Amino acid sequence: MFLRNLLESRSFLESDLTNPQDWLINIMGGVGTASGERVTSETALLNSNVYTCASILGGDIGKLPIQTFKRRGEGIEKDGSHPVSCILGLRANPYMSAYTFKELLQVHCTLWGNAYANIEWETSGPNNGQPKALWPLDPSKTDVRTDKVTGEVWYVTVLPSGEVRKIPPADIIHIKSISKNGLKGISPIAVIREEIGVQQAQRKFLGSFYANGTATRGILRVPGAAKLEPEAKEKARDEWQKANAGLSNAHRIAILDAGMEYQALGMPLNDAQFIETSRFGIMEVAKIYKVPGYKLGLMEQAKFSNMENQSLEYVKNTLQPIVTNWEQEITFKLFTELERRRYYVRFNLASELRGDSASRAAFYKEMIAMGVYKINEVRALEEQDNIGELGDKHFVSLNYVSLDKMDQYQMLKAGLGKGGETGA
Length: 424
What we know:
The protein is of the alpha+beta class. The protein has 16 helices and 15 strands. The chain starts with a helix and ends in an 11-residue tail after the last helix.
């Protein structure tokens, strides 16, 4: 059934059959690496470093409010009544809050390089033609296709029921990472697949190492020129392993017969190279996702004095490009052409940029002194009640004067009149 439905749209599958990498990855369970580990986007999420980055980026995007704005004359105001505002600010669909939806799509983009959501439109009532809900699609079963006959772009996805559906771009929210062709993002996992394979192999080694319950490796030496028969060697090895196998036997005293001596060969986990390899792996994953190392436990360069600067850099260099990507896609897809002349959406990054209380106080003071913020606006940012009409006034310092009035102001200070004569 699946193949028949796909083959009916042959032009969409010619690229797949001639370049079968994507579907071979799914069938074979991922791409092999030099470490012998197979890595897919699903298995990569089990890597603690990738999981942490996905959790950080997903959580940060999920918690940031998306606000809907409307241009009115020469001014701009928030609009909480538009359906887009409700979908992005409260409930994306009957089963997902706005936070869960945003977090999920960002995790998809972090792992697969692409996040897709199907737009459900209202078909009747006062909101006819406006978005009703957003339904995330499985990125591992969704792809972008270009019809070789018409040149049109379509999305092909497999629903949980097994139905193959062809969806026009106007009905899809597509958040993509860096891309080679502008149509589909590159999976970051493909970039760090080898590094993740090494980390998976390291974890398997650690598990096997500690499962043996012994902290050292070594040999049993027979004194003098004595030579053991193969059966005796096997028996000695078996007895030694019985005494030291498993955590329950880790501290038991081993008794050696016939003057045998045990010589430790050293613990491989003491090697600085092993530790450095683990640290390097964390840095590589953090670098790909542009997540500061201190968020993944690398505290060498994280100091209290520069922590705020690093957090600000994270917002500007990591979150800002992501939210811009979201904003432009949402504004274009969820508003009609006529609405886009007045409506647009913005993430509110104020909470991430405010800093500590002292920094916020200094910022608010400057904004009020320049007449940018009103007192009630500052109180709203701090989630405090307004103080009524008195808080809706703008203030500006009397020390400020416009440039066109500067000469007149200086003349008045010098005691000169309009005609340049000294006043009485």
